[in-house]
Amino acid sequence: GDSVITVQLTEEDKVEDDVVFYLVFTGSTIQHCTSTRKINPGSLETISPGHDCCETVKVSLCASREGHPVLVVAEETFQFVQDEAYDAAQFLATCAGNQQALNFTRFLDRSRPPAADVDFLDEKVTLAFRHLKLPAEWNVLGADQSLTENIPRETLMHFAVRLGLLRLTWFLLQQPGGRGALSIHNNEGATPVSLALERGYQKLHQLLTKEEAREPDSWSTLSHTVHSGDYSVKHHRGLDVYMLTAEA
Predict the structure, then answer these.
(1) What is the pLDDT of residue 23?
(2) What does UniProt give as GO cellular component (predicted)?
(3) Which pLDDT belongs to residue 118?
C-alpha cells in the first residue's frame, strides 16, 4: 500500500473537466475506493490502498458526472504481494512476548544498518504493521497479561528503540500495552526510555517522555486516517486524494 498509481486514459476517455474518476479495489473481504488527481487530460494519479492480505483483487476505473449514472470505464486485476517488510511485521506481531524470538532480534544490533536503510526499514515495516489485521486481544507485551512490570524481559518496544525506529515506536505506543512497555526493564536493566537516552536518539526520547508528543512528521504530513466502525477514510495530503475502505 501507499505507492503512487498512474492511470493512462485512452483517447475516448479524455473527457471534460467536470468528470471525476475513481478506482475501486474489490478484495475477498475488503473494498477500497480512491479518488484520483488529474495530471493532464490523459493521465490520472492516485495512491494504492493498504490491503489486509496478499491476493489478486479486481480494480474498476469509474467515471462520475453530476446528473449522470456512474460508469465503469475499465477493469483490470491488481496484485498485493508479500514482501520482506510484510514478513517482518508479521514476525514481530506474532513474537510479542516471545522472549526467545525477541532475544534473537538483538543480533540486528551488532550489524546495525546505515541510517538511510534504518529509515527505509522503519517506514516500510510500520506501514505493513498498520495494514496487518491484528487480533482484538493483541498486546505489545504479548498474550500473557499475568506478567507484572517487575519481571525483567525484552519487549517489542525495546526492539524498536534499540534500532532507532521512530515510526514503529509511535505505532506501538498507540497499541494496547504500548505505554506499559516503557517502564519494563530488560535483563540488562534498560527500559526503552533509558535505551533511547543512552543511544542519543533525541527525537525518540522526546516521543517516549513528552505527554503531548506529536506523530512523526513524515506521516502526519502525508496522510490522516479517520475510523468509524467497519469504515475508514484516509486523506493523502501529498496528492490530495481520499481513500474509503470498507469491510466487504
Answers:
(1) 97
(2) actin cytoskeleton; membrane
(3) 80
Q: Are residues 60 and 116 in the same domain?
A: no
pTM summary value: 0.72
Long-range contacts of 61-69 (CB under 8 A, 24+ apart): 61/7, 61/21, 61/22, 61/23, 62/21, 62/22, 62/23, 62/24, 63/13, 63/15, 63/19, 63/20, 63/21, 64/19, 64/20, 64/21, 64/22, 65/18, 65/19, 65/20, 66/18
In angstroms, the CA 135 to CA 56 distance is 23
Nearest-angstrom CA–CA distance, 117 and 84? 13
Q: Clarify whether residues 35 and 149 are in a common domain.
A: no
Number of domains in the chain: 2
Task: State how far the Cα of 8 lies from the Cα of 223, in Å rounded to an integer.
Answer: 25
Q: What is the pLDDT of residue 22?
A: 96
Those residues of the chain that have pLDDT short of 70 are: 13-16, 108-116, 145-149, 212-223
